[in-house]
Amino acid sequence: MSENPLHLLMNPKSVAVAGASNTPTKMGSIQALSLLKDGYQGKVYFLHPKDKTIFGIGAYPSPRDLPEVPDLAFLVVPINAALTLLEEFGRIGTKRAIVVTAGFKETGAEGANLEKQLNEVAARYGIRFVGPNCLGIINSQICLNTTVYPFPPSDGLLGLASQSGTYVTQILPLSRKKGIKFSKAISLGNEANIDIADALEYLGEDEQTKAVILYIEGIRNGKKFLEIARKVTRRKPVLAQYVGGTVSGARAGMSHTGAMAGPDFLYDGMFKQAGIIRVGSIEELYDHGWTLATQPMLRGNRIGVMTNSGGPSSSISNTCDLVGLSVPRYSEKLQEQIRPYLQPHAASSNPVDLTFDTSMKNLAITIPEIILKSGEVDALISHGIMHSGFLREIYSHAVDFLGDISFEQFLEMAEPVLTETFEIPRKYNVPYLISTFFGQEDYYTKGFQEHNIPVFHSPEKAARAMGALYHYSLIKKRKPGKKVTLPKISPRAVNILKQARQNRQKALDEHTAKRLLAAYGVPVTKEILAKSLREALAAASKLGYPVALKACHWEIMHKSGKSLIALNIENATSLKKAFLDIRRAAGFFTPVLVQQMLSGGREFLAGMTRFAAFGPGVVFGLGGVFTEVYRDTTIRVAPLTDADAQEMLTDIRGKKLLDNFRGMPEVDKEKMIKILQAVGNIALLHPEIAEIDLNPIIIQKARPVVADALIVLKNGL
Amino acid sequence: MSENPLHLLMNPKSVAVAGASNTPTKMGSIQALSLLKDGYQGKVYFLHPKDKTIFGIGAYPSPRDLPEVPDLAFLVVPINAALTLLEEFGRIGTKRAIVVTAGFKETGAEGANLEKQLNEVAARYGIRFVGPNCLGIINSQICLNTTVYPFPPSDGLLGLASQSGTYVTQILPLSRKKGIKFSKAISLGNEANIDIADALEYLGEDEQTKAVILYIEGIRNGKKFLEIARKVTRRKPVLAQYVGGTVSGARAGMSHTGAMAGPDFLYDGMFKQAGIIRVGSIEELYDHGWTLATQPMLRGNRIGVMTNSGGPSSSISNTCDLVGLSVPRYSEKLQEQIRPYLQPHAASSNPVDLTFDTSMKNLAITIPEIILKSGEVDALISHGIMHSGFLREIYSHAVDFLGDISFEQFLEMAEPVLTETFEIPRKYNVPYLISTFFGQEDYYTKGFQEHNIPVFHSPEKAARAMGALYHYSLIKKRKPGKKVTLPKISPRAVNILKQARQNRQKALDEHTAKRLLAAYGVPVTKEILAKSLREALAAASKLGYPVALKACHWEIMHKSGKSLIALNIENATSLKKAFLDIRRAAGFFTPVLVQQMLSGGREFLAGMTRFAAFGPGVVFGLGGVFTEVYRDTTIRVAPLTDADAQEMLTDIRGKKLLDNFRGMPEVDKEKMIKILQAVGNIALLHPEIAEIDLNPIIIQKARPVVADALIVLKNGL
């Protein structure tokens, strides 16, 4: 168990609230009522400048007047009072706080300064706090709820950490309708002190929480987040929505929690690296999170589909295929067992479609049991189990002809809800997901929800949620990477960079960049720098024709389209002409690089860019001419484990190019992995490097060789 | 107005029902009750072998006993009775029928034969019918409902044609909760007679229907469908879900309606060609369909986002960007007008975030009006307008401290629902979509729905629905293509194919294939067929070095990797060697094609495959080495208009390659369009051609030239 500050914050024995009043429709009061009314057994105290009681409970003018030192201070006061009060709580020895108060970093420079002061006060007294600009927390285990909506006692399984308060609280009525129950939920606000990585760590350690969902507008400490996430995803599923990756998303996030967003593809790569399942909407975040929190591990990808209706069975089957699942045809033997329970000619091969049938026994119990006993599928999706919802529809039309009976009497005439239905998933220990067009007005919907069997109001959603289970089963199977040990810093590299700094260079020239790369084991083209035609001719003879010629100076960062490069030079005559052409374009004293001419049908790229909060990101992808056309790249945060780099190779659309391809041998993947790891390591060892761009990396037979390299240095070195 | 058979079928003055009984829980009876109880004003008659009345209405033993000839026969009888009864209705002169009865084509060969007989009976009497294996129809205009669920009178706007009955009927309770109302709905079943194209035509002509949604498992007459769809989408939005494009989806569809599915990418291309908006789930089909049915045309892509909460505002903004919309920053002037209504420091730049505020006036009326008056956005998305849903939450906690008041009294104390809110969208005539986590328990949700303002229970869904509006605005802006006139059939092509047939060839050799293509104006490489080394040397001299050599015989369909091809031959010496190598590999008498060696950095492909129900599909995409790696292709159904072919060029991911690219000029797109059109035309003129594969089409400077061609002939010619 870590020293995570949320252990105490989420489990206080006493809470002091500042900012509630006896007006029960003000925000602070509404939050205080949640604390009082949802079953929390700890002590609650109020602070109020004048009133002696609030909601019938004793109120005190100042923290020092409280009868005990509360574990948690809960502040919903104006911004200046928040600072003063935090200080006062610090003085009496309170170590945890939730600051709901808004108006800090999210409002600009002045607010950011106030937020800094808040943190300084906290540091002075060893206080750790959530917020500011948040809604607080829910801990279902001790019935603690500080949000504006009621949270009735429940045995939740889903843990949420959210940079939006709305997604902790305003969404509660909708979650209730869906049967989704939090174990713990944390509204993080501006994360001045406790951040989303802390919350993830805490939820990862929490026994009650079976899956963690994260709503993210921007991560402040990327390294910490990634390190914690890697650990948590080995133990339990973590899902995330990230909305800061577009221009509008980033602007909205900035004005909401002052979040520092990063590009979408960076987060995409980082989530993959961490083993986090990314979703595209808040609805999916909850739906898939709840599925992963409640369902056992999916053992394979074979899904059985049960319906009483062909549309949903086709929609589910189609969607299963699209998310990597399969809907296998049942064996003849199994179909023979199923057929007696079907209409003649009804589909028995998977999906099983019972067609219109008002008895639910076959759909809900008999056939599922036969299928699950067979072992031919790893999970079931069922659409069409219904009772009171359906009967209500029928009743409204038939009532006149049923004799004078009430709906309740009509329900009694019908088949009762078959409660065995709800036991089947646990009995066979497989994932079981329900699709229905009825809400809780239908007794089956309600029953499934009460048994933590997820219910979706759309066939495709059930199939996609099953896809999330499959996704996590793949994450669990990932090989853990070997711990990265950074290589020793190369004196040659240090010298190169020192020299460049002395020269006030903004970049290294190609040849020098390659020397630096080679110092870390990156394979580069054989090449010789020539300062004269004579040297160039000698170099070409030494390297052997054909060669390439390139103007080589740090100020020349991009060579193509400017007559600074000549390829496929076959002989001395051509070399002479090319040399002079390049000199003419680049200037008479520009050195010329004479380079072995590599040829190979396959070109890749590797690169490095630094990102705020995450540090260096290493990119791998398709290189050469098609780089800009397909933008087929993937990114991971450095340092890369061997497993990280390995996954990058299969994460590009053009991954086929790395295999035996049109007569060309499989690329030496170990070597490519080493290049990617080296790029990350170089970035970590040499913070003065701003960017690395290796493009193309040409595959010579099987071996990747860097044919062009650019290393950009940080400004102001 | 067309002679569409649904005009009468959907508007009968009288209906005769066969298959209902006085047991109100049987399927036929439930359907009959819908007919009786939902307000239909036409005459309803029953047929029954024994009973004299059904549900108190006169029943007759046979159609000939009916007091009048009903406009519509509705059959829910066993399969053999269906055949007999249809015949009897035919005899008395009934011209329309709905056959609910299942057990036909969807069950295999025997059922398919019965379905054929059904159609023969219909043809004999001039009957047009919907089904078999369907649930019938809903026509809200005349309160006609034959489905198993009630459909209360409503002024619907959305037309549905569905190959699943469930999506017409079982989904109704869910649609009601969402405020979605059908104008007309048709469950098509097996489409033995009236098909989805007829239904689309009918809904396209129907004045009440403002948008059409289609649920598709497989289209039986693709040409008819495409032709009708092209017309309808010019008048009103059409959306479709297609689920038959995967192995499992196709199998499920086959056993459901006997639908003949086709590959997903074919439908994808065909929908684009037709101007149909494709969706990925039944939920999106309804949600986006309802949005398009109710909202005015989106005039641009500038979206205003209004919330009282940062999470949804970030989620909406991010999703807007992802679907091609923009969330523009408001002008300083506009922000100044907005700020007085916001908390200090609250976001005013777009999104506007009011943060926690229990009064709805600013969020729902004041600020939207200011924004819409400014003209700075084309539409609004709003999250967080709430009333009774929210108050119910608050009340449950505050009740003890409010004095002894009921929830109703508490509601009265609160701000009333501001009904002006619902008038704003119409007043400014812009699309207006709502996100909220409350259902109809909230008065605002209910009010918006009653005013046909779509409500979504997720911020991202509202943004995606706005994306569908944007998508349709782009479809409306498409240039209509010129009508295609097929060229005159080429005598040379006819001769080539005749000869091949006489030789019992399965394909044309490359050279002959190119001669055929050239006869229709397709630019091909300059080349000469050589039967000897001497001829080859002469040919090379004539064409000029470098040349390519290829073994040329119809049995050699794929040349690469088999030593049957030699490229970049620079001189006579190399040619001799290459010629002999090829002869050694291909056989001594195999002719050798001597071809100008094209070089160009860009390679594309064009091709043709025939598809059941649709005929020839023309493919365009990235060619050469990367063909299999990126599978970057798009397809349209022949014949292609110039506009179809033009759209194909921009529909591939690698479209940048067609423009000025790395110093290469823009590809001559007119010429590429002509190649694509020619491929389609050749397929239509010469049905004996099974497949065409032109890969690569090399771009020489700007001009596309076919460098290799394969034409496969149909078997058994």
Write the layout of secondary structure elements.
The structure is a homodimer of 717-residue chains.
Chain A: H1 6-9, E1 14-18, H2 27-37, E2 43-47, E3 53-54, E4 57-60, E5 72-75, H3 79-92, E6 96-99, H4 109-125, E7 128-130, E8 136-139, E9 144-145, E10 158-162, H5 172-178, E11 182-187, H6 196-205, E12 211-216, H7 222-235, E13 238-242, H8 247-257, H9 264-274, E14 277-279, H10 282-294, E15 303-307, H11 310-322, H12 332-338, E16 352-353, H13 361-374, E17 379-383, H14 388-398, H15 407-413, H16 424-428, E18 432-435, H17 443-450, E19 455-456, H18 459-477, H19 491-502, E20 507-508, H20 510-519, E21 527-530, H21 533-543, E22 547-551, E23 565-569, H22 572-586, E24 592-596, E25 603-611, E26 615-622, H23 627-630, E27 633-637, H24 642-650, H25 669-685, E28 689-700, E29 703-706, E30 709-713
Parallel strand pairs in A: 1-2, 1-5, 2-4, 5-6, 6-7, 10-11, 10-12, 12-13, 13-14, 15-16, 15-17, 17-18, 18-19
Antiparallel strand pairs in A: 3-4, 8-9, 8-11, 20-30, 21-24, 22-23, 22-24, 25-26, 25-28, 26-27, 28-29, 28-30
Short structural description:
2 copies of one chain form a homodimer. The first copy, chain A, has 717 residues and is of the alpha/beta class. Chain A is 38% helix and 20% strand.
